[in-house]
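ARCHIVE CARD
Drawer: 12
Card no.: 0347
Subject: one protein chain, sequence and derived structure
Cross-reference: see card 0346
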Amino acid sequence: MTEQQQPAGTPRVSVISGPTAVGKGTVVARLQERHPEVFVSISATTRPPRVGEIDGVHYHFLSEQDFDRLVAQDGLLEWAVVHGKHRYGTLRAPVDEAVGQGRAVVLEIDLQGARQVRKTYPQAQHIFIEPPTWEELVRRLAGRGTETPEQQERRLATAQQELACVGEFDHVVVNREIDQTVEDLVGLLGL
């Protein structure tokens, strides 16, 4: 982790990215539990809700037309087509509103989205969550049990490409142990 940190109370948009299975979601959820004042952006998507998902809690579920309108009106900080089917993106208005309220903002997004945010929100800081070792990343992915071996291979190939881009980020936090990783993020977010 670099030494540069924000003074306490400084509002800032922080992009948190990293490879599959590195624990981004778990780390961000723990951060939000400990610091509910942090605004964690909820992604918008054109895919239909899964059983148990609630609009505005898990995702903002949008029609193709509404998503098109947001793209045309510069209403998204970033967006992408995922798995060649549905679009996902980060709504600009809630982020701007949270920053205007003086809140720290976290965007948990992939490398492609992080690159877009660097252009659409250049004042954001970019934090890369890195696994302690490649072997640990492979173990975590296999341990989830949510992907077939073929899907795991695809995700690991993507992870290698993402790890090669770590130099694009302002800070690197190695996720060895979740509580320490959260503390590292607390420092970077100036909380």
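Annotation on reverse: Residues 74 and 92 are 8 Å apart (CA to CA). Residues 1-11 have pLDDT under 50 and may be disordered.
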